[in-house]
Design a protein that fits this description.
homodimer, mainly alpha, Arc Repressor Mutant, subunit A, 2 domains, DNA-binding
Chain lengths: ~190, ~190
DNA sequence: GTCTATATAATGATAGAC
DNA sequence: GTCTATCATTATATAGAC
């Protein structure tokens, strides 16, 4: 197993565990168990736990950017593209029900820890924010595109939090329907 | 300092610290420092850390119930009462900006920890949920009162998460204005 | 690159003096 | 009811053999 491969395995295992158990609750021992390496071997690839966190955030940023690029092509119209965003609530409903939103929960945890990486974690939100903003601009909403983007992000965050708290999948579907309706109101109604 | 007083001090300090630092990140040493007692003295009042968490949740449930009872009296109409709920985003905006919503973040953390107390933490949401539901029923929305209550809870959760991520107080005010408008649409429009 | 063994610090928790 | 002293465990992190 080459250096790069082991490193990648560590980051991917950490990515999953940070999501499902939280950053602080996840120990080297736990990651090592998943990757099947010794704890000592860890420090060949990363000097500190914070470095793993940085790598995880970088991985998520990359994956998110790829997803957004894909939506840009696959979604024909801006509305269809924004629907792709809303639809991740449906696609990931099972995990959301158990662990909430990976972006929102990580950001909240790091905020409480006053962790230096919180700024980078927020960049995950920024990627969505500016992507959504540009889609709303394409819909003619030049003035309040950012406002609409933030609103939509907040709505999806709220859905994830409540769905997790009440373990309620039906609520996700209910709210997604409302979000689609909300979106339709913003088609060809530029101010 | 009597027994009851020290115990109450511990619970109140833990309440604040669990909110601002998270449950797991808060150690006995940290609580002890705030309350100014030794770590050993702790175990006279609580056998385990989980018992403190239970006490904190119970405290929050009590405080929430008192607040809801107060809103029931002070808010003249159901709409005014629901506005009281929305308005906590404004009243607590400074803390929300830094630490998010105390209910949402605790619930999310406990969900990831698979902590037994997650069920009790969700009861905090339930208090708001059923209180809001009954207000929407009074407004004539008999069929979808619970749906509206959950929607409003989700909206406020989303606002808190995003405001915390971007440290954005202005966004809170923006969204609160929209929530007031949303609420006005549901006055005398029962289905 | 990976391992074992170990250092060091902090945690939750206990025992017993006062 | 509060303290000091201490234990057991776990965590991050290091050193050095292979």
């Amino acid at each position: 197993m080459s250096d790069k491969s082991t490193r990648a395995h560590i980051v991917e295992a950490a990515d999953q565990l940070f999501y499902q158990q939280g950053f602080e609750h996840t120990s080297f021992a736990h990651i090592a168990e998943v990757v099947k390496i010794s704890r000592g071997n860890f420090y060949y690839h990363f000097k500190t736990k914070d470095e793993i966190l940085d790598a995880v955030i970088y991985l998520r940023l990359s994956k998110t950017q790829i997803m957004l690029d894909k939506w840009l092509i696959e979604g024909g119209t801006p509305v269809e593209r924004i629907r792709c965003f809303i639809n991740i609530l449906i696609l990931n409903r099972e995990k959301i029900k158990h662990f909430g939103c990976p972006v929102g929960t990580l950001t909240s945890e790091l905020a409480k820890l006053k962790h230096a990486a919180q700024k980078d974690a927020t960049k995950l939100f920024s990627l969505f924010r500016f992507w959504l903003k540009s889609q709303f601009q394409l819909l003619g909403h030049m003035k309040n595109a950012d406002e609409l983007a933030m609103h939509l992000l907040a709505r999806s965050q709220g859905v994830a939090t409540m769905a997790c708290a009440f373990n309620d999948e039906k609520f996700i579907k209910q709210e997604v329907t409302q979000l689609y309706e909300w979106l339709d109101h913003y088609v060809d109604s530029a101010t």
